[in-house]
Amino acid sequence: xxxxxxxxxxxxxxxxxxxxxxxARRFRQPSLVMYILxxxxxxxxxxxxxxxxxxxxxSALVSETEYITLMSELGLAFLLFFIGLExxxxxxxxxLGETLTISFxxxxxxxxxxxxxxxxxxxxxxxxxxxxxxxxxxxxxxVVKILADKGEVETKAGKLDVSILLFEDVTVVLVMAxxxxxxxxxxxxxTSIGLSALKVGFFVAAVAGAxxxxxxxxxxxxxxxxxxxxxxxxxxxxxxxxxxxxxxxxLGLSLEVGAFFAGVSIAQLPYSEELHEKxxxxxxxxxxxxxxxxxxxxTTGDLLKYIWVAVGFAAAVIVLKMLFYxxxxxxxxxxxxNSFKASINMTQTxxxxxxxxxxxxxxxxxxSAVVGMITIVALLTMGISSYMIFYSDKxxxxxxxxxxxxxxxxxxxxxxxSQDSTRQ
Length: 424
Description:
Blueprint: H1 2-26, H2 31-42, H3 44-50, H4 66-84, H5 89-120, H6 125-135, H7 140-150, H8 156-185, H9 190-217, H10 219-226, H11 230-250, H12 255-267, H13 272-296, H14 300-305, H15 307-331, H16 336-344, H17 351-362, H18 368-390, H19 392-398
Helix pairs in contact: 1-2, 2-3, 2-13, 4-12, 4-13, 5-6, 5-8, 5-15, 6-17, 7-8, 7-18, 8-9, 8-16, 8-17, 9-12, 11-12, 15-16, 15-18, 17-18
């Protein structure tokens, strides 16, 4: 079984990932969009599509196995560890007062809007809550990559958006922990949600405290010694990652919580950027497996059941996020141009929309058809918004706007680390 997996399934999966990266660059799309499409092509959905051709009938080229599932789980752990490595406490302090209002207000507005729309579309209360949570984030992978390509990361709108995405990254961890706790409890009343939130808050605070404390008293000497051997440095960093995932799971939290705070603890040290670069290739690989495996698990029935709901939700994501961000940035004193730029950049759902869906499916909080709907919304919004961001100046001119100073006015003080499609 092991031999079969590595000689066939993994080979096709890795080749598919390589082709996906090439296509993503060619069509200016996020890699994860192509990874999911690759998974769909290699799995039951692709086989069903090919079987529509008269005389052809094939089975899925690659099927999910315990090995792919394990590698997918590692992908989530590495993703949260990677994000944690980019979050410095001093950076959060610097942007706290300037972006907190916009960040949490828009998340609340988007979540409330999509909870209502989901109820109207016929979804249950729990399903509607998860859908609302999945859609309230925007994609760091899309926003930062395209802004970097356009040289607009340091503009006023660019700095604001990256700062907002920073806060969203932090809240993602807390929400995922609550979802995992609810799944473990098996009850979903208002009381159980409140108790789960309190429990998660206590244990997350404990893990965060351990992470921050270790970054002051344990890690400096440990990593200073480890950094002398460049080859062993990565191993020491990974040992720290898996130690925190173990602690997190023993406390009843998801492994992603431990992975995130393991990264945060190292991020406060001067060695963090070196480890950040060493971890990136591993993160890219395991994330590719995660998103391809997500596509492998979806059937044509899952994708088609809510197809028109997905199209409607995708349009609503683009319109509502554009509207909410524009109003909030204008309220904070941004001119028309910077408000337009800041809002058009955020008109998509996040990598974590798909991650939430996958976690909820694994925890039996959602059915596979709802996961398929959330995935389609992510694919549509990321794909469309990529072109909207790239041609934002032309769109602004078409709407009759006049391009003003791109960097003037209030500056968001955020030290930017090198970011790319690894993040959400």
